[in-house]
Amino acid sequence: MLPTDLARFKIRHGEVIFRWLSENKKHDLERAERLLSIVGSHVGETRGDLDDAMKAETDSGRDYRIRRALGHLLTERTSFATSTELIPIDVRTFVFTQAAQLHPVDSAERVRILQDAANHFCVDVDAIESALYADLSQNQQVIETPQMTPAQLIQRYNVALVQSALLRCHHLKIHLPNSTAKRLRQFYRYLKFHRLLYRLDKDSNGLSFLLDGPSSVLYQSTRYGLLLAKFFPALLLCEEWSIEAMIQAKKRSPRGLLKLTHEMGLKSHYPDTGTWIAAEEQALINRLTDLASPWIISTDTRPISLGDQQVVVPDFVIEDPSSKQTLAVEILWRWRRKNLASRVRMLEKSDRKDILLLVCRAGQSTEDIPRSVQEQMISFVQVPNARSVLKKAKSYFSELG
User: Fold this and answer.
1) Who contacts 80 (Cβ-Cβ below 8 Å, separation ≥6)?
2) Is the pTM of the predicted complex or chain greater than 0.90?
3) Per CATH, domain 167-271 is 1.25.40
4) Per-residue pLDDT reduced to its tens digit, 248-269
5) Is residue 221 a contact partner of residue 214, using CB atoms and an 8 Å limit?
6) Phi, psi (5° rounding) for residue 161?
7) Exposed (0-12), middle (13-18) or buried (19+): which is 308, by Cβ within 10 Å?
8) pLDDT digits (tens, 9 = 90+) for 341-361
9) What is the CB neighbour count within 10 angstroms for residue 382?
10) CATH annotation of 279-400
């Protein structure tokens, strides 16, 4: 995230305009490479030394704001640690207590106090000197620096520009035209993790999410804005997306419309996890496809809203072409008890009967699940049984007549 004074965007003619960097421009790459080199060369040195070197590089020139922003992104991802095994506050307490008894302290007495401290802590005098203020920020040691290329630093900078604008967002509209069940489930996990408020609309063109922005939330808007900004890189994991956001840079200033799509090439730095399709799951779908005729097995699924911003994203759907009825199937391979309990409460409260849960019970018990929900559930140890799934589907379609 970039500080306010380093966020380079303007509102012009009702639109938000960013000053992007390009990973294809030699000048931008060289600028990023210099800063990466400075940070990487200071491993083992103090934070004060690093700050001085970064200041010398970023304090002059017409593009100083860009270089400061790149430097900020690097230093906030650099790891620092206190470079002593002693506890600095304990060392200071001992030294200052001794000095207070001899005040005022001359150079000879100072040496004796430090020697007494060295004897007390069983180290040499140099270690005492180093430990006295080792916990101060500027004296902390650089332990690890970001492992990224100049192009990746530029990508991170462009994403940070958008995040800075979203801190001043009134509302955000997200459109996902084509997303797999795995990708949607990942998207919802990030929405829930960041505790964002949203409304979901579905149409033939895909899914639209309307998210409240920090300017529309009356309580703790700054904190909410940070959550919304931190969520943005998760959106970039989707293959296709577009957003529209109303941005107000300052109070009482004109608002501007922010428009972005996946075609702009913004890249997420978040790990892309949770979208892999297990071989067992693919085998189940293939087996069901062979056995289900005349029913249709489709992995082109859409989320099912259960109210109160609770959503189920099925892994596949069983469709009866004659009645046009569908049964949504979700597989829970690995689960925590509280997560399963939450899903059970959702099903009970919604009273939806068109959802079937396949729950892996390996090492865990599902006996405490209410009977009403057990009728919508099949437990398995390693791989779900395709014929059992089809038996549940037949029972469901029969009840519908």
Assistant:
1) 47, 137, 140, 141, 142, 143
2) no
3) no
4) 877 777 889 999 999 999 999 9
5) yes
6) -60, -45
7) exposed
8) 777 777 777 778 889 988 887
9) 7
10) 3.40.1350
